[in-house]
Design a protein that fits this description.
Strand order of the largest sheet: 1-2
Shape: globular
Largest sheet: 2 strands, antiparallel
Number of helices: 3
Strand content: 15-25%
Structural class: alpha+beta
Oligomer: single chain
Radius of gyration: 12 Å
Length: 92
C-alpha cells in the first residue's frame, strides 16, 4: 500500500499479506508512514476483532482505495516468505 506520508513524500505505508488459503494474513506498517500507517494498522486490527479475515480486509481495501482515500494498493503478488513482506514495507 502506498500513500502520502507525514514528511510530504509518497511511498509505502504498509503491506497487507494474505495466505493462499485466503484467511490467514497480517499487516506490516512502514516505518516512515507515520499517522497513515498507524491508522491503517488500527483499521486492520479493528476489522480482525469484528471477525473479518485477512482476505476480506484486502478485498475491502481494494474496493475503497483510490483518489478519494489517497491510498493505492499495489497489484497482488505471490510472495514466498514474511521477510519479503517486511522488505516491501521498508522499500522506498
Amino acid at each position: 500500500m502506498r500513500g502520502h506520508r507525514e514528511d510530504g513524500s509518497h511511498g509505502p505505508i504498509g503491506v497487507v499479506w494474505v495466505a493462499e488459503s485466503g484467511g490467514a494474513g497480517g499487516y506490516v506498517g512502514a516505518v516512515r508512514a507515520g499517522w497513515l500507517g498507524a491508522e491503517t494498522r488500527r483499521s486492520y486490527d479493528g476489522a480482525r476483532r469484528r471477525g473479518w479475515d485477512a482476505g476480506r480486509i484486502f478485498r475491502h481495501w481494494s474496493d475503497e482505495a483510490g483518489e478519494l482515500t489517497g491510498v493505492v494498493l499495489d497489484p497482488a503478488a505471490r510472495i514466498g516468505d514474511l521477510a519479503t513482506v517486511r522488505r516491501l514495507a521498508t522499500t522506498e
